[in-house]
Backbone:
DNA sequence: CCGGATCCCAGCGGATACTG
DNA sequence: CAGTATCCGCTGGGATCCGG
């Protein structure tokens, strides 16, 4: 997914990656601490979680807040544009519901 | 993207793969012959095109029609459910437009 | 203990050549 | 024309280790 093969490819570069949508969903649900995400999302490795969160941050979808406490804590929140991804997920969910009916 | 990590993952298993959306778009545009797709889509290999088309067929998104002529010809068309993917692409396009404004 | 960097390997997909 | 076969490089991501 690195080559420019589609206008929508930037979107899939983000959301097409494994775990990304689930992370976003959990942040939307208010689980916005790194450690919480790691516990709540089954089987995700810390490497992958870090990687996805950084990618989302670099793309302006998520904001990273570091609290310099002991123990340290890092919180992630959706930006405005990040919150608008909801519409995409809704469209996908609706399509998937119809697709399952036909396909199974 | 093989493990069940998100309800939407089946959708991303399909559309998150490289080339898939571009192939669908071209079929929507009426370029539905294998050879036409291979020419129109820049840099795609026949191996990958075959693979994607088969995957789309297996998932009921595309129908394969073989015309037993000389030379042989194979045509791909969207199923009903395949056509409904348009809504997802619209939602993504709209989001992407806003995202680009913020991000660049 | 929290957040993340490093190492390493399976699997995706690109290039090329061949078949009915 | 419409694929399949083979080879192989590269990236994603799981296991493991590290700084504070």
Residues:
């Amino acid at each position: 997914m690195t080559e420019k093969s589609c206008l929508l490819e930037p979107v899939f570069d983000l959301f097409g990656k494994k775990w990304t949508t689930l992370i976003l969903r959990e942040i939307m649900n208010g689980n916005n601490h790194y450690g919480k995400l790691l516990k709540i999302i089954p089987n995700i490795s810390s490497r992958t979680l870090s990687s996805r969160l950084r990618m989302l941050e670099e793309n302006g979808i998520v904001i990273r807040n570091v609290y310099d406490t002991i123990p340290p804590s890092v919180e992630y929140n959706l930006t405005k544009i990040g919150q608008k991804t909801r519409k995409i997920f809704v469209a996908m969910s609706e399509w998937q519901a119809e697709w399952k009916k036909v396909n199974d």
Summary: The CA atoms of residues 46 and 52 of chain B lie 10 Å apart. Chain B has a mean pLDDT of 91. Chain B has one domain: 9-103. The longest strand of chain B covers residues 62-67.
